[in-house]
Amino acid sequence: MTREQRLARVFVELADTLVDDFDMIDLLHQLCDRSVELLAADAAGLILADQHGRLQVMASTTEEARLLELFVLQNEEGPCLDCYTTGEQVVNVELDAIGRRWPRFQAAGIAAGYHATHALPMRLRGQVIGTLNLFCLQPSTLTDVDIDLGQALCDIATIALLQERTIRSGEILAEQLQGALNSRIVIEQAKGVLVASAEIPLDAAFALLRDYSRRHNLRLADVAHQVANQTLAATDLAAST
Predict the structure, then answer these.
(1) ∠42-33-69 over CA atoms, to 5°?
(2) Which carries the bigger pLDDT value, residue 51 or residue 89?
(3) Average pLDDT of the segment spanning 97-114
(4) For residue 153, how many other CB atoms are within 10 A of its CB?
(5) What was the pLDDT predicted at 134?
């Protein structure tokens, strides 16, 4: 099987997780396994922020990688933490050359037998939820093509995870949606009042509501309530235009 064929199959595998009932832990381990396979690494680990923003080791391909990830979190030092904080890739890191920047991580990584590491952010539109970390027993340099591939794998997994979090927070989302629907009903009622009292088109009525709310830094729904309850008239809305 060519590398291109293997890539296509891997992306299909990850895309198959974009369903409501996928196994999150299985997805994370799959991401680690495929990243090691495609990017010529020897081990991978993944840290993920929980719902409270605390970083947790969620998956790894080896016990050594898992322990090194735990060491990083306990000592608050290492490329993956910089990657998570900045949302930027931290790649082609040679452990022999990082003593000043990450001395404790350097010692732990070399003790585990690694000589190079790479960290890729799991992010979507500015939201960073974790990092994928690759460890290499020999000096290793990722090309731009390799980095783009690794980031693409992370992006697919991130979309799946954020979808899963949205599903799990369904009650909150439902409440927010219901609130938005309730506000929309009141706004329509207010528009009807303005149309009848000021004899203006619906579009103009909505423009009056929106402009007034913006000028007075009020929620549109609150202005609509006042109009619907006839405590705020069309003349009041237009008075400060």
Answers:
(1) 65
(2) 89
(3) 95
(4) 24
(5) 97
| One CATH from 3.40.50, 1.10.10, 1.10.860, 1.10.155 for 171-239 | 1.10.10
In the chain, which segments carry CATH 1.10.10?
171-239
* Fold assignment, 3-168: Beta-Lactamase (3.30.450)
Residues of the chain with CATH 3.30.450.40: 3-168
Q: Is 1 helix (H, G, I), strand (E, B) or coil?
A: coil
Tokens of 180: 């938005």
Section 175-179 average pLDDT: 55
**Inter-residue contact 223 to 212 (CB < 8 Å):** yes
Strand 90-94 and strand 116-124: pairing?
antiparallel
User: Distance between CA 77 and CA 102 in Å, rounded?
Assistant: 6
Model confidence pLDDT, tens digit, residues 222-238: 888 898 988 888 888 87
